[in-house]
Design a protein that fits this description.
GO terms for molecular function: asparagine synthase (glutamine-hydrolyzing) activity. With about 400 residues, the chain is mainly alpha-helical. The protein has a single domain (about 5-40, about 50-195, about 205-380), classed as Rossmann fold (3-Layer(aba) Sandwich). The chain is built from 18 helices and 5 strands. A 5-stranded parallel sheet has the order 3-2-1-4-5. Strand 1 (about 70-75), helix 4 and strand 2 form a beta-alpha-beta unit. Helix 2 packs parallel to helix 13 and helix 11 runs antiparallel to helix 13. It starts with 10 loop residues before the first helix and ends in a 17-residue tail after the last helix.
């Protein structure tokens, strides 16, 4: 089995439901990206060779996956996965390689995860309908459902807690490759908030002070008070640390533990199934291209980044703004509700978590999504040995 040590959350990661901090091992990459970005003023530094445009760098990033068919693309219909699918389709046709195979989840009783309209439109625009594979899930992807059980039984606890979403797609890709849009929410999301006018900043400040004065509920009520205080302090510090300039921000995101662990778990589980997992939006060549050509941009929005990246080379539909789907309804289903309501209070690190407070949190429904890792922790602690294999996911006839 592939080494998964880089994908293991710490006890504090699990208890808090948030992974904070920078990965020390990413220091050399961060330094290279910082060096690639032009200075805030003056001409770009002289480099040993030409750096391709960001879109060309993305084309280069998807090529290794396309050269190992079948090349599946995890396609939700969102902007990031649509961008990767469109680039993969164009490169495959230009290079005479087999078309990529989009694989899409369709969920029952999860309206906020519904993206079928965008899925249909993008697939039609790219002419990939005959290759498209659609998987159906009701209770299947619950946090303690059959797919998650299969992954947890084999690999133990991984980050992120929804890693099992990709397991059936990886199994379909055995012997080939998998492309995903992982990292788009960080690299292409744009600055988390635009600076705005002085009046707007003062308005936000007044609003923030007013909220504190109203004593908003604790966002981590299941944690020991000292742990919650320290987490809030670290979270605020991390938000303040995000650089404004694009070159620095890309380097900062690629060095965050959250993203390095996410990539590590996907890569390791895929490799264990003889699948090459490629995350082109996290590719170093793409990051260097962004830093080199657009590194001076200060606080760009997601729309600005996507419009500049696609230019006239991709169908406008691919990068058109759309509602961001949310997937809590997919993972927190009847199985999780039944499990947490019957929890006996054991299996957590009581130096970090107050079991009584967590039990109170889990009596409400829906439960806080930040407790997903704790659900897995206590489920693993109570897991009986010798459990049989879960039922396979079925494709939807079209």
């Amino acid at each position: 089995m592939t080494d998964l040590s880089l994908a293991r959350p710490t006890a504090q990661d699990v208890a808090c439901g948030i992974v904070l901090g920078q990965d020390p091992a990413a220091g050399p990459l961060t330094a290279r990206l910082s060096a690639a970005g032009p200075p805030a003023a003056g001409p770009p530094a002289v480099r040993p060779g030409p750096v391709p445009a960001p879109l060309v760098a993305l084309e280069q990033a998807v090529l290794p996956a396309l050269c190992r068919p079948p090349c599946l693309v995890s396609f939700s219909g969102g902007v990031d996965s649509a961008l990767v699918l469109a680039i993969a389709a164009r490169v495959a046709r230009r290079e005479g390689l087999p078309d990529p195979v989009p694989v899409t989840w369709r969920f029952t009783d999860a309206p906020r995860a519904q993206e079928s309209d965008w899925q249909d439109r993008v697939i039609a625009e790219l002419g990939l309908g005959r290759h498209w594979r659609i998987l159906s899930a009701g209770e299947d992807l619950d946090l303690v459902g059959p797919v998650a059980a299969r992954l947890l039984d084999r690999y133990g606890q991984l980050h992120p807690p929804n890693r099992h979403l990709h397991l059936p797609i990886i199994e379909l890709a055995r012997g080939g490759a998998l492309l995903t849009g992982v990292g788009g929410d960080q690299i292409l999301a744009g600055w988390r908030r635009r600076p705005g006018s002085l009046r707007a900043r003062l308005s936000r400040l007044r609003h923030s002070v007013g909220r504190r004065a109203a004593r908003e509920p604790d966002p981590f009520p299941w944690l020991r008070p000292r742990v919650a205080r320290e987490l809030r302090r670290r979270f605020r510090a991390e938000r303040r640390a995000e650089p404004h300039r694009l070159a620095g921000r890309v380097a900062w995101h690629l060095g965050r533990r959250d993203l390095t662990m996410t990539r590590a778990s996907l890569t390791a589980v895929a490799a264990d199934h003889d699948v090459l997992a490629v995350t082109p939006l996290l590719d170093e060549g793409f990051a260097v291209a962004l830093a080199t050509h657009r590194g001076r941009w200060r606080s760009p929005s997601r729309r600005e980044l996507l419009a500049d990246l696609a230019d006239a080379d991709l169908p406008p539909l691919v990068v058109a703004p759309r509602r961001k789907a949310t997937f809590d309804e997919v993972f927190f289903r009847a199985g999780t509700r039944e499990f947490v309501h019957g929890w006996d209070g054991t299996g957590v690190d009581e130096t970090l978590v107050d079991p009584a407070a967590l039990r109170r949190e889990w009596t409400a429904w829906p439960v806080c999504p930040r407790t997903a890792a704790l659900v897995h922790q206590v489920w693993l602690a109570s897991r009986p040995a010798g459990t049989g294999p879960a039922q396979p996911i079925m494709e939807v006839p079209r």
